[in-house]
Specification:
Layout: H1 2-15, H2 17-21, E1 26-27, E2 30-31, H3 37-42, E3 50-57, E4 60-64, H4 67-75, H5 77-80, H6 89-93, E5 101-108, E6 111-115, H7 118-126, H8 128-142
Antiparallel strand pairs: 1-2, 3-4, 5-6
Keywords: Signal
Pfam family, one: YHS
Protein name: YHS domain-containing protein
Length: about 150
């Protein structure tokens, strides 16, 4: 089952190829697929951003649901941007970039982590401490992978 999952994950990574070249995972909808990074912290849920409130940061367009959230992010983007450039935290721990689902998320110690999907999120949260250490050690290399 895990082997088939990783094969599927690899195939999805190939499909979104151009996004994998950037240090910030971004789609045509923007960073975090157009979701508001601040809302995860302020509302404890993902909220779709509005095209009226955007910011270009780290070569990606970030969308926000309110002007207040835009200003909060602008004042301290590193605090609100997801770890590992918004790529799947579990995938980074495995040594590669993978896309993420804005609905598969967690905040631990004030850090936003995104995952490929809810199933991967379960694997991430089950062993998050060790996986985060692995991902931290691999991110400096993985983030520059094309």
């Amino acid at each position: 089952m895990k082997k088939m999952f990783f094969m599927l994950m690899f195939a999805m990574t190939a499909i979104v190829g151009n996004a994998q070249k950037a240090q910030i995972y971004s789609t045509k909808a923007g960073a975090i697929n157009g979701y508001d990074a601040v809302s995860y912290f302020s509302e404890s849920k993902p909220v779709k951003g509005d095209a009226k409130f955007t910011l270009k940061w780290m070569d990606a367009t970030w969308y926000f649901s309110t002007n207040k959230n835009l200003e909060v992010f602008k004042a301290n983007p590193e605090k609100y941007a997801p770890k590992y450039g918004g790529y799947c935290a579990y995938g980074v721990a495995q040594g590669h970039k993978a896309p993420t689902d804005p609905e598969a998320w967690s905040i631990t110690d004030g850090v936003l982590y995104l995952n490929y999907n809810k199933e991967v999120q379960k694997m991430w949260t089950k062993d998050q401490k060790d996986l985060a250490l692995k991902a931290d050690s691999k991110w400096s290399t993985v983030k520059n992978d094309k």
